[in-house]
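User: Can you help me understand a structure? I only have the sequence.
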Amino acid sequence: MFRKAVFCLFLVLCAVVVRPVQGFAATEIICSSTTSTDNSGLFGYILPLFEKKTGIKVKVVALGTGAAIEMGKRGDADVAFVHAKEQELKAVKEGFFVNRHDVMYNDFVIIGPVDDPARIRGMKSASEAFKKIAAAGKFVSRGDKSGTNTKELQLWKMVGIEPKGQAWYIEAGQGMEKTQRVADEKRAYTLTDRGTWLATKDKDRLAMAILVEGDPMLFNQYGVMAVNPARFKGVKYKEAMEFVDWLISKEGQQTIASFKDKNGNQLFFPDAK
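Assistant: Let's start by predicting it. Here is the structure, written out as tokens:
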């Protein structure tokens, strides 16, 4: 009788312990995103706060923006957080995504060797700086159809230069942080977003500096959009929209604004409408 009572008590305790754990199992969504949001440390900062608030885990797949959008267009992600607005709006118009919103911005900068062999330091026009790099330097491109690569190609087009195949032009086919490292190794120039540069330059011990900044052409807008559930029945649209809504909410925007590097520099500036 005693053993039976103990056994029953054991079963009750197991039920008490196990049920809450099962009840709080987290839902997971997949976010395809650009490498800059990952390399800068932004996701590592904001996602724990979102997950604690909602119980929704966000698995980030960091790619170039072009690849991140394509991942969503295949239905292999639930939400995309990228930075090539024209490509984003086109994908929405084509019916692959819904509910696109501006989230935040920073800017691109041209970095290069500290001794600056192409003599571009302080130039106000990024495209004119590219012209001088082509004439007297080397350039490392991400070459991955990312938002950064898209901006870079716009700048080459502005000065009428086709860089592909040129001896001074290197396509890394890598994310932003790795591309910076290649440029450092090659004593070359590259275009990077300020957030990734500030977050990684000391860690990677890069012998480089920001040489050109402030051109309005270097503005860098980030947006978020949910994969269209009418097109892909398996996506977790409800949870994806919770993430979208949080990013553009007062709380989400304040969280993004509070993300800074170790020197106190704000890396992204919220601008959700």
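Now, to help you interpret it: The chain has two domains: 16-105+222-270, 107-218. The CA atoms of residues 40 and 200 lie 7 Å apart. Let me know which part you'd like to focus on.
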